[in-house]
Specification:
By secondary structure, the chain is mainly alpha-helical. The chain folds into 2 domains: 113 residues, no CATH class; 53 residues, no CATH class. It is 55% helix and 7% strand. The chain contains 6 helices and 4 strands; from the N terminus they run βαααβααββα. α3 packs antiparallel against α4. The radius of gyration is 20 Å and the shape is globular.
Length: 167
């Protein structure tokens, strides 16, 4: 009997090489224990990120933001490569890539002095105020329920983040 590689899913042979993603990193009661924002703070303290960023003038801040956005694109491209290249999805690399995206995104907020917990809460509150519907211009080939803004929610979220950043 052939051993199945549990780190990949063969996407050309539907059903013959099935892997459930949670098998890679099972969801447990302790899954709620970590504080990602605090972990990022620890990492940035270790590497002196916040100390350095606090010395930046406006032009350097703009370049730093560009660097971080490019970093996010790079991580997304690596994740897409793991998901789409070849006949198999490298599940372990996709999970790693998605976590790397979170680390870079939360790290960017932290580096700019944004209270990520407060920003998260405000964005979550705005998302929870949305209703199920169809968002024009967003393809939905699987027919999944998606949400749409009741009002100009995106504008509200941007304003909240600006207040948090300036605060």
């Amino acid at each position: 009997m052939e051993k199945i590689n549990t780190n990949t899913i063969n996407i050309t042979e539907h059903g013959t090489n099935t892997l459930h993603w949670p098998d890679l990193v099972p969801y447990t009661e302790s899954s709620f224990g970590g504080d990602w924002v605090n972990d990022i703070h620890d990492m940035h303290t270790k590497f002196g990120v916040r100390d350095k960023v606090e010395t930046f003038e406006q032009e350097s801040m703009r370049k730093f933001l560009e660097f971080r956005l490019n970093f996010l694109r790079e991580e997304l491209e690596e994740t897409e490569k793991a998901a789409y290249e070849g006949d198999e999805v490298d599940c372990e690399e996709v999970v790693d890539g998605l976590i790397d995206l979170c680390v870079v995104a939360i790290g960017t907020l932290h580096a700019f002095g944004v209270d990520a917990h407060l920003a998260w809460n405000e964005v979550h509150k705005a998302n929870m105020s949305k209703e199920v519907g169809i968002k024009e211009g967003r393809p939905n080939p699987l027919g999944l329920q998606i949400y749409v803004n009741q009002k100009d929610g995106k504008h509200q979220i941007i304003m909240v983040i600006m207040v948090i950043y300036q605060g």
